[in-house]
Design goal:
This protein is mostly helical and about 450 residues long. It has helices at about 1-5, 40-45, 55-80, 90-115, 135-155, 165-180, 185-190, 235-240, 250-255, 260-265, 325-345, 345-355, 370-380, 390-395, 400, 425-430, and strands spanning about 35, 220-225, 245-250, 265-270, 300, 320-325. The strands form 3 sheets. A two-stranded antiparallel ribbon has the order 1-3. The longest helix is centred in the N-terminal third of the chain and has 26 residues, at about 90-115. It is globular and about 65 Å long.
Length: about 450
């Protein structure tokens, strides 16, 4: 039953599925990436003008989140019936996993839609769910924090290995929830988990290996959606590595400091070794055997892509785990929270950021002090193409400033931004009639 709750992550919005784009394609929501396409939600989002009928991810984020919440609620509604079969610790551990997943999805909903109906039990016909008002965001967050505290208490403080959330997973999720509300002092205290001598996580010795090649028992991964070919696979290599349906923006490339080795581990540039060119073996159009043309930015994503697969096609079985949380993110959240709560001069805050910069294989020069600009840019380059940048620019309230600086096609057109919240999908508004008011400016 709990496995069925985890299965809620298995879609193209939250991980990846066969013959469809991976969730990493949603990086285009931020200023880090551009997506190919002449229609649908991606075009509407990039050129501006989304509305409640746009569909695509604006619908899927809602639908898949509530499917996950429904699965968790069904588990929680029924788990008490077999409580006597478990020790207290085992029972609460499994309950904590379900609460972690439910909280994960509620966090997605409040970030994208604001007030959302808070459902803590499974919906039944005749129960009145179709007249349920949207719950104020603050009340949803209060419940999320209560649930994630239970998870932190009962999940084991062990390394992440088998796809099941552990205590560190819940710590990261709670930090994200608190950061969205600018509760920096609380985040600094919670993220001090990094200094716990029993903390089982560490920075990996191979940055690229976190995303392909060295994911098994990786000390840095704190939560991921795991796959295993040939029975359990997805199309990331084809969509990203061959079709290049999503690719880095000029803006992302410009954010790296000179000689940062993470550039070559995150993206291909013209002249780089590239398996999809049988003529020169380099990233260039002459001799390109991939399914897509070299993007107009002359950049393609390398992070996550199997560098050994020549010309990935639909028959290629990709099983990279989709990383949702990792230790470097927690270190940088700690540094940010310390700085924003007035503790930026604490040596531990600066050390957290420099530990990331000086991780094995990166070894960037240490920063002598923390500034907001340094922290934010370090998050951008370290966590590029991991689906985190959009959440950062929303909570920093700078999306309205940075999104319009992104060129999204070869003709030079620039992106527009429609606001920090998305409209509630029209299909949901139709069901709820006059019970809900649509988000501005679509109301």
């Amino acid at each position: 039953a709990l496995t069925a709750v985890y299965a809620s992550f298995r879609n193209s919005t939250f991980s990846a599925v066969p013959a469809s784009g991976p969730c990493t394609e949603l990086e285009y929501l931020s200023d880090n990436a551009v997506v190919r396409g002449t229609g649908g939600a991606p075009l509407n989002i990039q050129q501006g003008g989304i509305n409640s009928t746009t569909g695509g991810v604006l619908n899927d984020m809602w639908t898949y989140s509530y499917k996950g919440i429904s699965a968790a609620n069904y588990f929680l509604d029924n788990f008490d019936k077999v409580k006597d079969l478990y020790s207290e610790a085992d029972f609460n551990k499994l309950k904590a996993e379900a609460l972690f997943i439910r909280t994960f999805f509620y966090n997605e909903l409040v970030v994208h839609y604001g007030d959302v109906p808070l459902m803590l039990q499974g919906a039944e016909v005749g129960s009145g769910y179709d007249r349920m008002p949207r719950t104020p965001r603050a009340e949803v967050v209060k419940q999320m924090l209560e649930d994630i505290d239970f998870a932190i208490k009962w999940l084991p403080n062990i390394a992440y290995t088998d796809g099941h959330a552990v205590q560190g997973s819940a710590v990261v999720l709670k930090c994200r929830i608190l950061l969205n509300d600018q509760r920096y002092s609380d985040v600094a205290k919670l993220a001090d988990y990094i200094h716990d001598p029993n903390n089982p996580f560490d920075l990996a010795d191979d940055y690229a290996g976190i995303f392909f090649g060295k994911q098994e028992n990786n000390p840095e991964i704190m939560f991921s959606i795991q796959f295993k070919a040939p029975d359990d696979f997805h199309a990331l290599d084809q969509m990203v590595g061959s079709r290049m349906t999503i690719f880095p923006s000029f803006n992302l490339r410009a954010s790296y400091e000179p000689n940062d080795p993470r550039i070559k581990m995150t993206m291909y540039e013209i002249g780089d070794p590239w398996p999809n060119n049988n003529k020169s073996g380099k990233f260039e159009e002459d001799g390109n055997k991939a399914e897509g043309l070299i993007p107009f930015t002359q950049l393609a994503f390398k992070k996550y892509v199997n560098p050994n697969v020549e010309v990935p096609k639909a028959s290629t079985l990709s099983d990279q785990h989709i990383v949702k949380m990792r230790y470097a993110d927690l270190l940088l959240m700690y540094a940010e929270a310390m700085f924003e709560s007035g503790q930026g001069n604490d040596p531990l805050a600066l050390k957290a950021l420099n530990d990331v910069r000086q991780r094995p294989g990166v070894n960037m020069p240490v920063k002598p002090q923390l500034t907001r600009e340094i922290i934010r840019n370090e998050r951008r380059v370290e966590l590029a193409y991991e689906g985190i940048r959009y959440y950062d620019i929303i909570r920093w309230d700078i999306a309205k400033d940075v999104i319009p600086t992104v060129q999204y096609d070869e003709s030079g057109r620039m992106r527009k931004f429609d606001g920090n919240l998305w409209p509630i999908p029209q299909s949901q508004m139709d069901i709820m009639g006059d019970v809900w008011e649509q988000n501005a400016p679509w109301n």
